[in-house]
Amino acid sequence: MAKAKVTFEDIEQTVNVPAGTRVIEVSEKIGAGIIYGCREGDCGTCMMHVTDGWNNLTEPSVLEEKILKENMASRHDRLACQAQVLGDCTVKPA
Amino acid sequence: MNGDIDVSRHCNAVEFADGVYWIGALDPTLRTFDIILSTANGTTYNAYLIRGSEGVAVVDTVKENFSDEFFARLESEVDYSEIKVIVLNHLEPDHTGALPELMRRAPQAKLHISQRATSMLKALLKPSSDAFAYTTVNTGDRVSLGDRTLSFLHTPFLHWPDTQCTYLEEEGILFSGDVFGCHYCDKRLFNDRVGDFRFSFDYYYAHIMRPFKKHVIDALKLIEPLTLKQIAPTHGPILRERPRRYVTHYRELSTSSLTREIGSDDHSLVIFYMSSYGNTARMAEEISEGAGGVAGVRVSIYDLEGGETEPFVDLIEEADALLFGSPTINGDAVKPVWDLLSSLAVVNLKGKIGGAFGSFGWSGEAVRMIEDRMRGLKMHIPHEGMRVKLIPTEEELDECRSFGRRIAEVLIGKRRERAVIDFAYLV
Questions:
Q1: Choosing among A35, A48, A71, which should be mutated to test the B contact, i.e. which has the most B CBs within 10 A?
Q2: pLDDT-derived band of residue B390, with 50, 70 and 90 as boundaries?
């Protein structure tokens, strides 16, 4: 299975994950600072900033785009409960 | 001005500035609001009407079962065909209950709401919301009523994501939504006429605004530069006499007092524990010792057995990191720990650092359960908690000091190099 490295910038920790893993599946287990609310892409609590490898995450769905807009996300912000890792990337709490 | 005012004796609009009217409703018998708030003398649902040379604006409405009073006051002053603008500063049902009927009677009116209010509008008013024309507004956006101008202030999380304030420029009146409001019902309506509502004002802040202090400070940056002749909130008295003192009071209530005590450079770490046989207490002391050895961290340690919930909530609100120690009894953390952890809805814990520890006899579930609760409260748990079976050994006490030190290092932002780890090895 294809692997990718996701780095959590706030705790300087990198994890090798199977491609397709959602960021939420990893971040809590290693104690990264991204925090969660509804965990289903509706509340915007888990907004994260992708500092590197923006294109290595799955495209945001129409629903995620809507929530990002409502929460005034900046460029390269994503919801950690929705974004899936496809290739190497670096993220931190937004 | 309005010396003999008694709005309970009529259903007319009450003019409190040139062409600006209160068209709200009194709810004197309400004793509990939204399950969580006691309302010793009821509340008011304040709505307002502004007449301009080129149309009328309605700012907020009332709870649904008070619609008759709202519409009667509105009709005493304007015809529905004159309404050009409806502003919703906040979409909670006590302010939007009369909206569907108002839109039915004034279908030409355009709703002005914040960006974040759009999904709530649909959820609250389904399915009729599809028919409502609305525009979203942000700080700096303005709408003209001819000789009157409304401008909008984006003030999210006071106390919902959608909240905003609306400012009538020519009259210096801030329609503040729930900000500067209180549950206090008085037919004399104005702060210079009503009874002593200081308790209600502070109580309302403590339960509604307190969890959002950071957002209050952000909002005050927009509000403080305004010329304020009156503040018209959605609950309680209209603040027409010395309105700025309420703004000052909000700033005082929202400013950290701990920072004044220990300086803004130090980080506060608070340890709470309960102990049956002294083992969890011993762990707490060693964790405190380890954390306290890190420069820039101020550690406080409290035995839950010797305190009460409310002052502990105050401590937690201002702490940067919280550690909870509990023995495991019958597979659970002990009740005083849960009592405190279930009393934190009034403070903001988002992003605070948390951790748990405890001694146990045979299974030791308490630590993981406390960690889960902290995650649920949106806290950040950087290190797995410390669990010790019965009496801690010297080695385990060393580990406790190390645990305290590592938490404190996260607190001051000290980085440590780490190897890449594999997802498969994560617990």
A1: A35
A2: very high
Region B234-253: mean pLDDT is: 97
B206 plus B184 within the same structural domain: yes
Give the domain CATH number at B209. Answer: 3.60.15.10
* Residues in chain A closer than 8 A to B421 (CB atoms): 13-16, 30
Q: Which residues in chain A are closer than 8 Å to B116, comparing Cβ atoms?
A: 70-71
Long-range contacts of B335-342 (CB under 8 A, 24+ apart): B336/B274, B336/B304, B336/B305, B337/B272, B337/B274, B337/B304, B337/B366, B337/B370, B338/B373, B339/B309, B340/B272, B340/B304, B340/B309, B340/B312, B340/B313, B340/B316, B341/B370, B341/B373, B341/B374, B341/B377
What is the topology classification, in CATH, of domain A3-87?
Answer: Ubiquitin-like (UB roll) (3.10.20)
Distance in angstroms (rounded) separating the CA atoms of residues B98 and B251: 33
Q: Which chain B residues are Cβ-neighbours of A72 within 8 angstroms?
A: 115
- Owning domain of residue B327: 259-411
Would B425 be classed as within a structural domain?
Answer: no
Q: Does residue B207 share a domain with residue B292?
A: no
Q: E-strand spans in B259-331?
A: 267-273, 297-303, 321-325
Q: Are residues B196 and B287 in the same domain?
A: no
Q: If you ran DSSP here, which 8-state letter would residue B212 be given? A: G
CA-nearest residue of chain B to A93? B351
Claim to verify: residue B335 and residue B406 sit in the same structural domain: yes
**Which of residues B241 and B120 earns the better pLDDT score?**
B241
- Rounded to the nearest integer, the mean pLDDT of chain B is 93
Domain identity same for B68 and B163: yes
CB-nearest to B421 from A15, A69, A71 is A15
Mean pLDDT over B176-186 rounds to 97
Query: Does B416 fall in a domain?
Result: no
Interchain CB distance below 8 Å, B417 and A12: yes
